[in-house]
Amino acid sequence: MKIVLTGGGSGGHFYPLIAVAEELRNLKKEQKVREMELYFFSSTPYDEDELHRLAIKFRHIYAGKLRVYFSLWNLRDAFMMVLGIFQALWKIFVVYPDAVFTKGGYAAFPVVVAAGVLRIPIIMHESDTVSGRVNRITARLATYIYTAFEQAKQQFPDKEVCAVGLPIREKIKHPQTEGAREYLHLKDDKPVLVVLCGSQGAEKINDLIVAILPDLVKDFYIIHQTGVNNFTAVQRAANFVLSDSSDAERYKPFDFLDSRGIQMSAGLADLIISRSGSSLFEIAAWGVPSILIPLPHSHGQHQLYNAMAYQKSGACLVIEEDNLTPSVFKRELEELMKDRARLQEMSKAALEFHRDDAARKIAETLVKIGEEHEE
Q1: pLDDT 10s digits, 87-131
Q2: Do 194 and 270 meet the contact criterion of CB atoms below 8 Å apart?
Q3: Which end of the chain, N or C, is less packed with Cβ atoms under 10 Å?
């Protein structure tokens, strides 16, 4: 059996594919499928170590972004998209997989179109409450559609859609507390705030944390993932504002947290501060209360709607960026951290929101339709 995974542009597209690949490998170990070859078709390999770990073969496909605003880059990207479709047609034909699983993103578009032309079954997953452009366009080609949010199902009225949550990799799904304080060099039992700005960073959140950092370190440890591109600037600013603080060592900045760092941080976190992309599903799996700050002007305001849907469960507090000032954030944070009963309720609500079997359900569907296609 041959299965192609596709998606690209961000970790939010890539890592759920890896979670499904893990479950496909588990199904093979359980002897529920005989032989299996996995491929990743995209414009970049994104994380070559993960592909190698799961023996996933990478195939490069040209792709261009689907912009909705005027840009001279649209001409170049339109050409790249057409080139990518012809390239994908040939490479898909050579592999001739039994099923294709797409997470969306501009790099998936040529692959899904090629699979549709070649009549190969397609399974699609949508992570957000508001569907991405590529998934919305290519949904008509899909055999099965899965969504992370119940609210997203209504966007595909002509299809059979199932809400399953988000596939999450095993190595970050379970927080770890043993040895975590030693690993992160936390010397006492002060509460821990974890700030996740993603691999690319979120400047507004970074600036917010730095602005109130001297007050925060008096009462909390701050584990701050700044994003690779922002790390130097944030660290320099933090060193300046903490130059007279006796508690400066409670601030722990990281450009990027690997899977072990995420596990340890989640295991100690009393509260997480984050955007509201696919990371909110990881936060839910950890059962940690959170303050979500949606990215403004995201496509279809999907981060805002994601955050509102999650807040409805009782698991988080949402603060929109337009209303975000250091004083407002500091007041909301202090009030929340004093209310231990509310934090416990939020933690319970997060765990209830989490669905643990998303990757397994998608993997089983891929195997099922793959076997049917083989026949």
Answers
A1: 999 999 999 999 999 999 889 999 999 999 999 999 999 999 999
A2: no
A3: C
Give the residue carrying structure tokens 């770990």.
53
Rounded CA separation 256/187 (Å): 22
Backbone angles phi, psi at 323, to 5 degrees: -100, 10
- d(CA 38, CA 209) in angstroms, rounded, equals 42
The pLDDT tens digits for 187-232 are 988 999 999 987 655 889 999 999 999 999 999 999 999 998 899 9
CA atoms of 292 and 277, how far apart (whole Å): 10
Does the predicted model carry a pTM greater than 0.85? yes
- Check if the beta carbon of residue 103 is closer than 8 Å to that of residue 132: no
Pick from 252, 253, 257, 254: nearest CA to 279: 257
How far apart are alpha carbons 64 and 67 in whole angstroms?
9
